């Protein structure tokens, strides 16, 4: 059995729960069947296992270097990417007219888990390129698609997103990179971008940067931002005015170069406007939202492979005896505390995988549902769930990685085993693509109150639909109470009409709502497993029981505290800290 991902769990979620085969009844997916889905899963698992996993530790111990002229990576990265792009998986869910496979997005997400579990550093290059290409396919001109997207889908070009700056990370309203219009319709960009993943390398003929910048005379704040294509190499073969100022040296995720880029050191970097001036952030959010769910998926994959490796270790490692026994030593998996740690990991990673695949299934509904009403409903629910799908796996699958180290004992703290690297790699994800605090403010300050509370209403309606199908299931009362309390507390938070006070404890709100959402995902899985026998299904029931008995009760005190509108975090002067 693979210790990268669980094929059995993916099949259960895709076929027994999310009914992915039914999507083949829709025109977009009519050429597909379970056979083609399974073949794609086989292909992804094979390439990830053979080409990505073997050099995962190598890229960690031999991180990228810059000699002042070029960036050096271990050659295995390029070989793995060659295999990936040759497979066509980069365009798995894209339109046939651009060479895509038109697979459902939910299947494409399942494919990506294999690569992120095998080698999250190397998989970062196609991950960003895919999101870049999808943005341009949606918002670019036909010429931009032909010039930039088609080479990306062939693996000749790779892509990035350039938002943050040395003085503007999460606060994009403070972006200072400027764009000056030129008589020929192009722009010249001047500024600096920080933390740009995959910003410089020799893995491709070109790098297509999508850059947020402010056109001269544009208003302050996010409304003044525009989006530009700024390639490393211009169409005529001339090197653009984009310079690597240096590499950032990270705790983990080392296989993906992370860069500080300077634009315009020699007269201005040539950029091509995407869409209209002033709509840059709105367009970039197309890529960012995809990336946020992708970050949750990557966090899940890292947590999942850590769980599988610690489970294997626990079954093989013989040490100690049960209390009161003087017999032979037993595998540590027989000790109750080790079972606790494994059950916790299982409940986190399988719950998180259900959530990110559910969100990916909503993308398919948003694109292909039979009615406009159904598409809009899917879009609304996806909007509400996106900050949860990004942040909950980033927090709790990291916790799973922590437990995987603990299961390994002293060995887990050594570089001889994989689990310490998985933890370091995953530690980026609570920061990547918007911190917990940013996602929390998005959830509480925007998503649940959007359209007069329709956002929260959509989530509640989806949970209530599950509860209606669950009937008198043993876990239904706990979920019903939790979602009801979420509604009450949300109303209490906003009743005073004070956004500063309301958002002061948004991160606690995100955690409580996140646990409630995962409890919902577990009840959904239990309904799909109902009446089915065997160790796999019994394992699902045990993990769900753990989550409902050990994890969901956390939300009670959290929601009670939120309801008091506590001012501790607001009223503590900086000098006291």
Can you describe what's shown?
With 577 residues, the protein is an alpha+beta fold. It folds into three domains: 7-156, Orthogonal Bundle (Butyryl-Coa Dehydrogenase, subunit A, domain 1), CATH 1.10.540.10; 158-278, Butyryl-CoA Dehydrogenase, subunit A, domain 2, CATH 2.40.110; 435-568, no CATH class. It is built from 19 helices and ten strands. It has helices at 7-17, 34-52, 56-61, 75-87, 105-118, 120-139, 142-153, 280-316, 336-368, 372-408, 419-426, 436-447, 450-470, 476-494, 499-502, 506-529, 535-551, 555-563, 568-571, and strands at residues 65-66, 71-72, 157-162, 178-181, 187-197, 206-215, 225-231, 242-247, 258-263, 269-274. The strands form two sheets. It has a five-stranded mixed barrel. A two-stranded antiparallel sheet has the order 1-2. A hairpin with a 5-residue loop joins strand 4 (178-181) and strand 5 (187-197). The longest helix is centred in the middle third of the chain and has 37 residues, at 280-316. The chain starts with 6 loop residues before the first helix and ends in a 6-residue tail after the last helix.
């Amino acid at each position: 059995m693979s210790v990268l991902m669980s094929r059995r769990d993916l099949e259960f979620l895709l076929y027994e729960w999310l009914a992915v085969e039914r999507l083949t009844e829709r025109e977009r997916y009519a050429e597909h069947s379970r056979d083609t889905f399974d073949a794609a899963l086989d292909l992804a698992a094979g390439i990830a296992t053979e080409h990505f996993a073997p050099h995962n530790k190598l890229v960690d111990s031999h991180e990228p270097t810059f000699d002042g002229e070029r960036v050096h990576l271990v050659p295995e990265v390029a070989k793995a990417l060659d295999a990936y792009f040759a497979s066509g998986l980069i365009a798995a869910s894209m339109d046939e007219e651009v060479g895509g496979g038109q697979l459902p997005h939910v299947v494409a997400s399942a494919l990506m888990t294999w690569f992120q579990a095998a080698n999250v550093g190397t998989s970062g290059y196609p991950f960003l390129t895919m999101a870049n290409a999808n943005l341009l396919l949606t918002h670019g001109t036909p010429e931009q698609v032909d010039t930039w997207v088609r080479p990306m889908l062939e693996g000749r070009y790779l892509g990035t997103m350039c938002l943050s700056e040395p003085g503007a990370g999460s606060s994009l309203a403070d972006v200072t990179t400027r764009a000056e219009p030129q008589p020929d319709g192009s722009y010249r960009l001047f500024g600096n971008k920080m933390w740009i993943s995959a910003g410089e390398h020799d893995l491709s003929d070109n790098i297509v940067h999508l850059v947020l910048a402010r056109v001269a005379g544009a208003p302050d704040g996010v409304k003044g931002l525009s989006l530009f294509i700024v390639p490393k190499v211009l169409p005529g073969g001339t090197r653009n005015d984009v310079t690597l100022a240096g590499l950032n040296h990270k705790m983990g995720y080392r296989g993906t170069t992370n860069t500080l880029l300077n634009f315009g050191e020699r007269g201005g970097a040539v950029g091509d406007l995407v869409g209209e001036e002033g709509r840059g952030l709105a367009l970039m959010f197309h890529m960012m939202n995809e990336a946020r769910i992708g970050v949750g998926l990557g966090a899940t994959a890292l947590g999942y492979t850590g769980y599988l490796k610690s489970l294997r270790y626990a079954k093989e490692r013989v040490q100690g005896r049960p209390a009161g026994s003087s017999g032979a030593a037993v595998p540590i998996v027989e000790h109750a505390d080790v079972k606790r740690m494994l059950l916790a990991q299982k409940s986190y990673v399988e719950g998180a995988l259900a959530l990110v695949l559910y969100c990916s299934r909503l993308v398919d509904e948003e694109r292909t549902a039979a009615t406009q009403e159904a598409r809009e409903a899917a879009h609304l629910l996806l909007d509400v769930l996106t900050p949860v799908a990004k942040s909950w796996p980033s927090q709790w699958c990291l916790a799973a990685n922590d437990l995987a180290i603990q299961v390994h004992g002293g060995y887990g703290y050594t570089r001889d085993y994989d689990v310490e690297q998985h933890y370091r790699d995953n530690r980026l994800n609570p920061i990547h693509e918007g911190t917990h605090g940013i996602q929390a403010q998005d959830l509480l300050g925007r998503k649940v109150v959007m359209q007069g509370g329709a956002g929260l209403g959509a989530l509640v309606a989806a949970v209530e639909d599950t509860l209606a199908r669950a009937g008198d299931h043993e876990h239904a009362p706990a979920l019903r109470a939790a979602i009801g309390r979420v509604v009450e507390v949300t109303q209490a938070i906003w009743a005073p009409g004070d956004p500063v006070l309301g958002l002061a404890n948004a991160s606690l709100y995100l955690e409580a709502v996140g646990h409630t959402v995962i409890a919902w995902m577990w009840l959904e899985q239990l309904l799909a497993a109902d009446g089915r026998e065997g160790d796999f299904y019994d394992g699902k029931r045990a993990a769900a029981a753990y989550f409902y008995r050990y994890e969901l009760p956390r939300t009670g005190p959290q929601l009670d505290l939120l309801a008091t509108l506590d001012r501790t975090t607001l009223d503590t002067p900086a000098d006291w800290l």
